[in-house]
Amino acid sequence: MYNILGGVTVLFFLRLIAPLIYFNDFGPGLFRMFVGGTAVLFGVAYIAVLRDYRRNHPLLVYGTVLKYWAFGISLFGFLTSSLSLQVLLLFGVGNLIFAALFTHCLLRPDPS
After folding, report:
1. What is the rounded distance in angstroms from the CA atom of residue 65 to the CA atom of residue 39?
2. In angstroms, rounded to a whole number, what is the distance separating the alpha carbons of residues 25 and 46?
């Protein structure tokens, strides 16, 4: 749900939410649509993993890497003063928490 809510927010509510989190770089509309749609797609993929872990395991591997990447780029943005603390916490740390949980799930001997 985290990804689906985030994706829907980027797709439809970013201009409403952005001032609350001090986010002022909307980027091109096409880029926002791609990012929001990708987030929703990964949210659906995580639901598929939840329903059938063994068959959809690779989706979790890709998603875990992507979550660490999301944290890394948001941390970089924060450290270079291009992202606010609020964005780092909501986007970066939120993704880091899920990355750690996904890593734990992937490293368990029998996740079923």
Report:
1. 14
2. 28
Domain count, the chain: 1
Q: Which two tokens stand for residue 84?
A: 């606010």
Assigned domain for 101 exists: yes
Residue 112 counted as domain residue: no
Say which DSSP state 92 is in: I
C-alpha–C-alpha distance, residues 110 and 68, integer Å: 23
pLDDT at 36: 94
Q: Amino acid identity of 46?
A: Y
Q: What is the CA radius of gyration of the chain?
A: 15
Tokens coding 70: 């999301």
Q: Are 62 and 99 in contact (CB under 8 A)?
A: no
Tell me, yes or no, whether 95 lies in a domain: yes
**Residue 58's domain spans which residues?**
2-107
Tell me: the pLDDT tens digits for 33-79?
999 999 999 999 999 999 999 999 999 999 999 999 999 999 999 99
The answer for residues whose C-beta is within 8 angstroms of residue 48's C-beta and 6 or more apart is: 56, 59
pTM for the predicted model, two decimal places = 0.88
